[in-house]
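agent> step 3/5: call structure_predict on target 'Serine hydrolase' (Roseospira marina).
agent> reason: downstream docking stage needs a structural representation; sequence fetched in step 2, passing through unchanged.
tool.input:
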Amino acid sequence: MTLSRRHVTARMAATLAVTATLPWARPARALARTPAEAAGALDAALERLPQLHSLQVRRGADVVFAEAPRGGGLDAPANIKSCSKSLVALLLGVAIDRGEVTGVDAPLRTVAPGLIPEDATEGVGGITLEDLVTLRAGLEATSGAHYGAWVGSNNWIAHALRRPMVARPGGRMIYSTGSTHVLGAALTEATGKSLLAQARERLGQPMGFAVPPWTRDPQGYYFGGNQMALTPRAMLDVATMVRDGGTFDGTQVVSADWMRASLEPRTVSPWSGMDYGYGWFLTGSGYAMARGYGGQVIAAHPERALAVAITSDPTQPARSGGYFGDLMDLLDGPILDLA
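tool.output (status=ok):
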């Protein structure tokens, strides 16, 4: 059921009144806006930002804001773009917890040697799963200017592993969807299950949402870093699970140990300046965030008990100095004011 703005505001005010006495409640004097003012600011943003399709905020157990004036609504699958990378990172944690992968330090030559082409760049076999999930494989990016040639190749994995080594594996962050795609293929080999099957069985089923099929590469591996689709409601549930240390509705979906490790800074994005953990951007204001092209966001703020899901026009760019900056202003402004 989609709540009206009036009902959301009333429910939000009641929720905040109850939770104000809880240990994790934000002191009232720190609020820059009242709940009604914060909701009003979000309403205004929905009208002011035509690229913004949907916005949901969960505080504790309650959805305190939920609007979808554009796009397919809250129950239709939306392309989450590179938020997919964060879901692949969650699946890595599940595979490690199940003993299907020995750990993040496992090298590609051990986990999935068959993925490595004979003419791979020297040193590729020693790239670890941690290097891949933190986007520190050292290989030249397949994203940006190289993206078209990469997805137009007849073997995405081989193409990615033939890129020149431009940094030490485990060194600086090189944003490259090819790294996450290789990771997803390695998980497929290690588990014997496609990335789609893993996403359905290990995330969707325990949390109660569907995961539709998405793009596959020429060898049949599901795209491990782009083009997944979830409903905005499912995105909010993922944010809630991350916020709550891997649990959702009483079920431990991803281990607490993996979630703690995932939200520790491992590197820094050269583009946004944000820290990056195991597949999650980490903001200075306390969010763990999955970020996708166009302004797709799955964000968790454990300290403030907030979970946020945002969908946007997936065909338009969202740069840190532009529309994505507008979204960050919302996250760090009126959304935090709901806490």
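agent> step 4/5: record observation. Residues 1-31 have pLDDT under 50 and may be disordered.
agent> proceeding.
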